[in-house]
């Protein structure tokens, strides 16, 4: 493979670090254009000095002076702010890793899509908020979106392009998170530390809490529906605590294809880098005798109502998934700040969706407009969720 220009949005996070680590271990031929981060200026500066991008961008403008200071004399440009992150995405790198957390990733990811970059998409929230328009923009500009979320990477790898009309079901696997076997009474007292301690995967705080509530699987259902043009009725979730099978596709002849691997995000990142080729790197092999057993369970909708919430938002269509995502971001942040309990997260999202039931009418437009609509819905759902949160706190 010849050298490709690369931009990493969210380079200091769990996925961003794994991406650079994969590049280092595989010796993949990369020419880094831009690295961007939210607030972790020290790690961003270290990465920039090691990888020599043209530009390093910190979203938090108060940290620009520090970034300039750290990069002084290196010839690497330093910039800050939301617009600078978006501009970095818009530089036309051939391959863009979209790994900002939350809806904050939407505008930069759309900028890269409109530029025709190949987008390795980890930032699932951007698909949930604006999936159809994002995918259409990428296609129209001559680029494309390759999923990095492990479940969607699995489905992407086992989907036979000539047999899409013969797919009967997509089956998303879920580890079940740290509270898989907990009772409601135990979950009522779950702390942020316990929610973040995922049994199999090492991830950022927000997605770790989403895994604990299983909203992660809800977001992934919406993501799968858009990526693979499949309605909610034909997407199922199965709990698979070993996280060895990353997801499955069931075909109409009774055959089900699964993709397997150790729980390491470098594998789906490698897939998104090299597709349709395979990247040679010293990946940990799957030791099946050591794993011994693969087990499966149905999810418990009573303890984990978020999957049904997401299914309902997907069926409602329009902007409902964007509103759900925004409310979830507010609720997760409040839980991490110890303002609400773990079991308040799902009801807060549900209440916000009920109050926002006009929002779906907003999303008739497409293309650039769809981004504005999604961002408007995101902002108003956040306002509604913050009000609902304040009401809850007054009642406590
Ligand atoms: P993380 O919190 O570890 O990293 C997030 C990155 O985004 C950091 O570089 C941070 O500085 C940056 N960032 C945060 N807020 C920002 C803002 N407002 N503007 C610009 N940059 C900002 O998160 P992560 O675990 O790496 O996850 C990143 C994305 O990938 C999420 O959407 C997550 O759902 C998805 N994902 C992650 C994993 C995983 O294993 N970590 C797996 C599948 C999907
Ligand atoms: Mg996933």
Termini separation: 59 Å
Based on CA atoms alone, the radius of gyration comes out at: 20 Å
Q: Which structural class matches the secondary elements?
A: alpha/beta
Number of strands: 11
* Percentage of residues in strands: 5-15%
Order of helices and strands: EHEHEHEHEHEHEHEHHHHEEEHHHHHH
Q: Helix coverage percent of residues?
A: 40-55%
Mean of pLDDT: 95
Number of helices: 17
Summary keywords:
Rossmann fold, globular, 3 domains, 4-stranded mixed β-sheet, 396 residues, 7-stranded parallel β-sheet, binds magnesium ion, Rna Polymerase Sigma Factor, Chain: A, alpha/beta, binds nicotinamide-adenine-dinucleotide, 47% helix, 11 strands, 17 helices
Sequence-ordered SSE layout with sheet pairings:
Elements: E1 4-9, H1 14-26, E2 30-37, H2 41-51, E3 55-58, H3 64-71, E4 77-80, H4 82-89, E5 95-98, H5 106-114, E6 118-121, H6 124-140, E7 144-147, H7 150-158, E8 167-174, H8 184-187, H9 192-196, H10 205-213, H11 215-227, E9 235-239, E10 245-251, E11 256-260, H12 266-274, H13 288-291, H14 306-316, H15 320-336, H16 345-355, H17 368-395
Parallel strand pairs: 1-2, 1-5, 2-3, 3-4, 5-6, 6-7, 8-9
Antiparallel strand pairs: 8-10, 10-11
Helix pairs in contact: 2-3, 4-5, 5-6, 6-11, 6-15, 6-17, 10-15, 11-14, 15-16, 15-17, 16-17
The structure holds nicotinamide-adenine-dinucleotide and magnesium ion.
């Amino acid at each position: 493979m010849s050298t490709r220009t690369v931009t990493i949005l969210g380079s200091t996070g769990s996925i961003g670090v794994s991406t650079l680590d994969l590049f280092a271990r595989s010796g993949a031929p990369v020419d880094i254009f831009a690295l961007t981060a939210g607030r972790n200026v020290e790690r961003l500066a270290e990465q920039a000095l090691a990888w020599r991008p043209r530009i390093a961008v910190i979203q938090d403008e108060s940290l620009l002076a520090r970034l300039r200071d750290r990069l002084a004399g290196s010839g690497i440009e330093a910039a800050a702010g939301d617009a600078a992150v978006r501009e970095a995405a818009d530089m036309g790198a051939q391959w863009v890793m979209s790994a900002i957390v939350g809806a904050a990733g939407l505008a930069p990811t759309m900028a890269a899509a409109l530029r025709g970059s190949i987008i390795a998409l980890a930032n699932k929230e951007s698909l949930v908020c604006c999936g159809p328009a994002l995918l259409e923009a990428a296609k129209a500009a001559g680029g494309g979106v390759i999923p990095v979320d492990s479940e969607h990477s699995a489905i992407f790898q086992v989907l036979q392009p000539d047999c899409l009309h013969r797919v009967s079901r997509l089956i998303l696997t879920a580890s079940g998170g740290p509270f898989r076997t907990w009772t409601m009474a135990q979950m009522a007292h779950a702390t942020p530390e316990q929610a973040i301690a995922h049994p199999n995967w090492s991830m950022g705080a927000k997605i770790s809490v989403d895994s604990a509530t299983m909203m992660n699987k809800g977001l992934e259902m919406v993501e799968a529906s858009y990526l693979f043009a499949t309605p909610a009725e034909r997407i199922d979730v199965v709990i698979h605590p070993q996280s060895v099978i990353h997801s499955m596709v069931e075909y109409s002849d009774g055959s089900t294809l699964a993709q397997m691997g150790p729980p390491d995000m470098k594998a789906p990142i490698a897939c998104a880098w090299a597709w349709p080729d395979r990247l040679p790197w010293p990946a940990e092999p799957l030791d099946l005798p050591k794993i011994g057993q693969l087990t499966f369970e149905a999810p418990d909708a009573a303890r984990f109502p978020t999957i049904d919430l997401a299914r309902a938002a997907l069926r409602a269509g329009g902007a409902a998934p964007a509103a759900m995502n925004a409310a979830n971001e507010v609720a997760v942040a409040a839980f991490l700040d110890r303002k609400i309990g773990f079991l308040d997260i799902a009801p807060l999202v549900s209440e916000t969706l009920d109050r926002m039931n006009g929002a779906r009418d907003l999303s008739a437009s497409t293309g650039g407009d769809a981004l504005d609509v999604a961002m408007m819905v995101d902002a108003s759902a956040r306002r509604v969720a913050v009000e609902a949160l304040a009401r809850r706190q007054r009642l406590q």
